[in-house]
Each structure stands twice: as C-alpha cells, then as structure tokens.
Amino acid sequence: MLLRCPACEATHPHDPMLYACPRCGAPLEVGYSEEEMRRATAFEGRGVWRYRPLLPVDRAVTLGEGDTGLHVCERLGRELGIPRLYVKNEGENPTGSFKDRGMTVGIALAAAVGARAVACASTGNTSASMSAYAARAGLKALVLVPADKVAAGKLSQALVHGAVIAEIEGSFDDAMRLVTELAVCERSVYLLNSLNPYRLEGQKTLAFELCETLGEPPEAVVLPVGNAGNISALWKGFREFHSLGRIGRLPRMIGVQAEGAAPIVRALRGHGDLEPVPRPETVATAIRIGAPVNWRKAIAAIRDSEGEAGTVTDREILDAQTLLARLEGLFVEPASAAPIAYLRRRRLEVPGPVVCVATGNGLKDPDAVLGVPVLRERIHPDLAAVRRLIGS
Ligand code: F0G
C-alpha cells in the first residue's frame, strides 16, 4: 500500500497521518501494488467489510454499515424519462448517511495509529457519523461546524454521542481551514475529513456494491457534490473493479451542485481551476461549500468518465424531495434530492441503469419540509370535523 498524488504524480509510503502531498500540497489517494490487487479476489460477508482485501486496515470498528437498499424506481423513472432508474438509499446506514462507510474505516485507522482524539469540520453528517464511531471506539471527538447552519437532526447526533462541538462564526470552508491547521500542529488529533484518503477507501465500497447488486456497472451515477470526496471515492471504486476485470466498462459520473454553491460546475465551465465561492448559500446545507478540498479529483472523475456537472435551484431541490417521497416512499434530505432535480431539469437519454445516490436520510432535516403543502388543519376531536376535512 502507498500514497499517490493525483496532481503531481509523486508517490509516498503508506502513512495514515499524511493528509496532503509533501511535494505539491494536493490531497492524496491510496494506491495498492499489483500484488495486493492480484490477491483481492475473494469478497466475503456483507457491507463495507465484505471488501476488506481492498481496504487499508484489517480491524473494523463497525456499526453494520453498507449494504443499503438499491431501489428500482419505475414511477419516478417514467416521470423523468429514465427507463432504468435506481435510488441507492444511503440514509439506511447506521447514522443515516453515506459517511458511515468512510468512518468505519477512518476510525479503525485512528485507533490503529493510537490517536487520542478525532476531529472534523462538517456541514452535519460527517460530524454525526464521526461522533458515533468515535464513541464506539472509545475516542474523543471534536467537531467544527458553521454556527446556525447545521440541520437539527445532525447536530443532535453529535450532541448525544458526546462530541465537543465548536460552532464557528463563519462558513464550512472556515471550519475546514481551521481543523486542517489543528491537525498539522496537534499530532495526537486524527483528521477525519475527506481530505483523509484512507476514509475515502471506505466510501468507494458504494461503487462495488452497485456493480455487484446490478450484476453490471451503472451507465450513469448521479450524486450531490459538496467537498467532493464522495464522487472521487466512487470513481476510484469503479476504476478498481474495472482493473480487476470485474466490470467491462465504466459509468459516467454526474455531479450536481446547488446554484448558490457550485464551484466545481464553474471550474468545469471555465479553465478547470477552482475559484472558490466566498459566500455559498443553499437550502441543502449539507453541500453548502464554496472551496471543496477534493475539487481536482472530482474534476478528473467527471472528465475521465465523460460525465458532466450541473446546478439546480433550491426550489427544484425541494420539489424533487417531495416527488421522490410521494412517488417512491423514500424520504431523503434536500442535498440528496439534488440528483433527482437535475434529471428532471436535464432530461437525459440513458437506456442503461442510472443510479441516483441518496446520500442522507430525510429525518436529519425535518425543518426543510415543514412548508410542503398538504391537507392539514387543526380540528375539534369529533367525527363531523374529520369528515369535513376529508370531504374538502
Ligand atoms: N450529501 C450529503 C447528505 C452530505 O452530507 C454531503 C457532504 C454530500 C452530499 C456531499 O459529499 O462532500 O463528499 O462531496 N457532507 C459533508 C459533511 C461535507 O460535513 O457532512 P462530498
């Protein structure tokens, strides 16, 4: 096992405490030798740890993550003009988001290197997941979140698991900068943002599961992009399965951002360099990020896969969230509805399987849906009043 820099192509020895390339400063990627890849033949068991031969650590700290539902969505597919539409519901993970796939691996590594505490900056889900897994491993957790911008469900998770919570008077990007500075000067604090390439190894298992459940690779994977770790991790997973000969082709990676927080979309439309969005804003607080640390990897994933990236408005996100809930019975948080909103806007013609990754559970952010119109009225407890309501 080694670390590789996708930006300057330098390689470095395996080191769980190395978060950025010492030569050029870019985020690193875990690499396996040909011998390690050759040995990765048998996958056994369920969930993330089924793929142990392609993970960077042996001993799991687990809550039973992975193996989430891949739901066929025929009714929604007809509405969007996609004949084979699936939703991978990552909200079925133990803490309700895809972050658990990475944390089960990241926390196992933190324990292996003897860290006393783990830390992350977060828009909510990373902090919820890290706090739970830290509790499981007996480690202290420190989370840095933008004050007043984290959904109630997510904050309550960090609270109940006993994390120390720093509410930063600033954005996620400020929190990210601070926690990175902290991890560099406090070596006993292990950084668990997606800057950490070992955590992303756990997240790539989502790609493996998709290929194994479908019996073929998807033709396109559509997912929300914030700090851009997940799209990079999935693309790495597909490439590894391809180089192992388990799949014969690669999917198109389609990244979706909110209109008010779309630095990756802008970079792709411009010269390919990141111009941070100074004051990102969106109802999808999970992806309210202006300076994604993994931007370079995400752009490579989209370009190399002949994919694309685009934006959706807050209104489109909330409408798509309701549509998915009403047509398919799946309640996802706003960020996770962005891919559905994008397919609705874009009307792609893709005959093969299209997978939308629903990254987080809708219960995380109940406030987001309180304005949705329904038949709802306060009434006296008598039958006539109920009948009047249903008759109206
Ligand atoms: N969807 C949800 C529900 C998320 O929580 C996140 C990221 C994303 C999508 C985007 O994933 O960052 O890998 O591109 N949430 C992080 C957090 C930033 O702190 O919970 P990404």
From TrEMBL:
Pathway annotation: Amino-acid biosynthesis; L-threonine biosynthesis; L-threonine from L-aspartate: step 5/5
EC numbers on record: 4.2.3.1
Cofactor or coenzyme needed: pyridoxal 5'-phosphate
Record InterPro entries: Ser/Thr_Dehydratase (IPR050147), Ser/Thr_deHydtase_PyrdxlP-BS (IPR000634), Thr_synthase-like (IPR004450), Thr_Synthase_bac/arc (IPR026260), TrpB-like_PALP (IPR001926), TrpB-like_PALP_sf (IPR036052)
Iron-sulfur as UniProt keyword: no
Modified-residue entries (N6-(pyridoxal phosphate)lysine), positions: K99
A molecular-function term among this protein's GO annotations: pyridoxal phosphate binding
Catalyzed chemical reaction(s): O-phospho-L-homoserine + H2O = L-threonine + phosphate
Residues where pyridoxal 5'-phosphate binds: N125, G226, N227, A228, G229, N230, T359
PROSITE patterns: DEHYDRATASE_SER_THR
BP GO terms, sorted: isoleucine biosynthetic process; L-serine catabolic process; L-threonine catabolic process; threonine biosynthetic process
Family recorded in the similarity comment: Belongs to the threonine synthase family.
Name listed for the protein in its UniProt record: Threonine synthase
